[in-house]
Records
---
Amino acid sequence: MVAFSQYLPHVLHSGKGVFGRFSVLFTVSIVWLYAYILTISGAYKNVKLKTQAHCRVDRSGLIGGAPWISVPYPFQWGAPTFDAGECFAMMMTSFIAIVESTGAFIAASRYASATMIPPSIVSRGIGWQGIGILLDSFFGTANGTSVAVENVGLLAVTHVGSRRVVQISAGFMIFFAVLGKFGALFASIPLPIFAGMYCVFFAYVGACGLSFLQFCNLNSFRTKFILGFSFFIGISVPQYFNEYASVSGHGPVHTGARWFNDMINVPFSNKPFVAGLVAYFLDNTMHLHQSAVRKDRGYHWWDKFRSFKKDARSEEFYSLPFNLNKFFPSV
């Protein structure tokens, strides 16, 4: 994918846009075909079962066991149950998803060459994400809805930021969810292919976050301390929580209330959450009485985007289709 997206468009004089926009499809097709050839030729017969499960294209009988047509419907796994303690744990998990989704929203706007997202637009996106989680619970998906951060990297690779592409992709996802054989076919793609692509996608996402530091004063010792300390703590604390859980079978917080354990162990096992929390605390408590601190923080660059109506381009970038702005106005 690196060759298709970064090198070939600059080497070849024709078809530059094709290689960039379809680099993911080319990569998946080539490596998937290679894995298929290895599978039918018997290259995986004498290897470990874990390797076979990851690399074979016929693993787990996905295609054979999938139905031709399967229409999901609400409460197909039984009536919903309610547990107050588990609700608190899920609220904390949803809060972590909100933090990551907000970062993905900002990164997507950056790679789509849009203006900075107004807070009301972020709130609108989080609200629709909440509705998605509610629908997930009705259909028993066993997981909530969150922004797929890797899709931001896909946006950066393809340079395609059209809403129409997202709408068509959603249609394909519905199609593959109903026609089980087709969905199972794509589920048979070996996992190392996704792992390799994520190396590129998440690199773009991380680089986008670092690019926002250009608006801070990186010559300030205050800024350097906040950056360095939050990065280090954001890596160290989750590593401690994860290693503790892998050795002991439970997190460092281990009381009789499992929901309380999850409320503490889950967020502090998440690197972006811990790093963001530490950076937010330090940035809002250190030397705020000094007049130069506001410019060091870079906040003055975003003042004109605090309101939806302050920038004329907000309508172009963030208005809803089908004239839905009348029902969901932005401020």
Note: The mean pLDDT is 88.
---
Amino acid sequence: MADPHQFFDDTSSAPSRGYGGQPSPGGMGYSSPSASHEAAFLADPMSNMAMAYGSSLAAQGKQLVDKNIDRFIPVTKLKYYFAVDTVYVGKKLGLLVFPYLHQDWEVQYQQDTPVAPRFDINAPDLYIPAMAFITYILVAGLALGTQDRFSPDLLGLQASSALAWLTLEVVAILLSLYLVTVNTDLTTIDLVAFLGYKYVGMIGGVLVGLLFGKIGYYLVLGWCCVSIFVFMIRTLRLKILAQAAAEGVPVRGARNQLRMYLTMAVAAAQPLLMYWLTFHLVR
């Protein structure tokens, strides 16, 4: 029995509270409420089932999103169009400016799969069109700045206008191919790549125009317009007309004539758009 005159209890006989005793998991001799609730949650079979069901739904949602994206934009194939190197970029730029001496325009295949662009100069790529588009916007901003006409709104209008025309081109070509019933291996990304090559000539024309005035602009842009016309004719005819020949379509048949007109129209639209998107940048 405790002494009524003792101020403190004698705790030396309690091993759990001595210095040699083990502390409780919660620290300071108290149990952790959060640890106990977490253990109870994990021990609950309904909670485990809910977690498993949520993970299953997340995985199914990811697969559904990836499937729908690949239906319109084959993201998994984009790596092919960016498989370039410095040698390929240099040769491709030379081909875009001087396509007249190039003879072999066939795309190389390996086991029914086109080889990467860095191994074939005729293969379409997205690296040059993407970089050329960004450079074109920067050069347009430089041209507007030298004329004291620069503003973020005007530069944004320049970029959106170029994108709108590119989108309109792709849609028009796909619709035309559908109307004339052309079975071709041209994809939407291929069209974006081929149509994006015109920005290279546009950059050259604007830069020379800033240095030497309108005369230099018209000379360089005129050369690049003729070059891109020849490039598109020789490239698209293998994609559209060669497929028609493989299907046994007569050379002078009505459908083949429509395909030839379509190829000519796509090639002729490139110089017109090159002039339309750059003439106001040089004064």
Note: The CA atoms of residues 183 and 193 lie 19 Å apart.
---
Amino acid sequence: MNQTLVTQFLILGFSETPGLQMLLFPAFLLLYMVALSGNLLIVLLISSSPALHTPVYFFLVNLAAVDILCTSTILPKLLGSMVAGRTISFGGCMAQLFFFTWSLGAELLLFSAMALDRYVAICRPLHYGALMGPRVCVLLASAVWAVSLTNTTVNTVLTGRLPFCGSNVVKHFFCEIPPLLKLSCAPTRLNEAMAFTADVVLALGSFSVTMLSYGCIIACIIASILRIRSAAGKRRAFSTCSSHLLVVSMYYSTVVYTYFRPASSYALDKDTVVSVVYTSVAPSLNPLIYSLRNTDVKAALRRVLSRSRALCAPRGPATSPLEGGQQAPPRASLP
């Protein structure tokens, strides 16, 4: 009772290895620039290309928006803490926790929506237009954002109501649930139960839906994919699936490792490295994985670049009225 409540936190970050600061700053700056520019480019390409106005690219735009939200919540503050103060106010910490948890839940649910879209496209191609129409896609995306918003609201409110009256040193590079629970001077069983429940529902639930969808896709291979005569058609059908599975495997493994354990088992050296994967590396790799392996996106990029070059190309000199065989108007005679 004699201790003062914490009003700000000290983000420890990577200060325990100061010799790496000069290497980590440009690395995280590069990751942020790649993630921001890559995801913004995907949004621009899909929005400006009518040929890409399909369900799979609609969900890809949502995924790009989630990655922009995640990296913009974490990396600017991290970069600032490397060159300036490492403190963050209590309200700023809760805001960072809110938006990060929101993006985390939305990304997990979007993976399931994208897996369902691939299942319908490959196993039910004749009914794809009816089953994945614009209204269905909007409803799925709205549900993704709404469910993840509910999850982050509950967990942020529960964390914000905890009393922090001891150490204010967050042994992490941003405000996340496990390291914050370790600083509380009150029991955190309810918080851990809610975080565990959210991880079971969002992470394991979404992962189960994704794996079930791809299990059905594999079962449909002989019936649908192998009927495609051209090799290019088969590659196009598997391209999005392989890219999606690569991202899902990397993302789910790190998230489950972080949130599927009690907060007391949090360790700075191991968990910080794992958190870097789903806060910085994955949002940077998503645009590269989904675009460089996708012929439609590359074709849209070439069209946008060609239009840009055409607009920026210097125009030829304006022709005078006397050029092109035109005769000069007769001069007015003097009176």
Note: Confidence is low (pLDDT under 50) at residues 319-335.
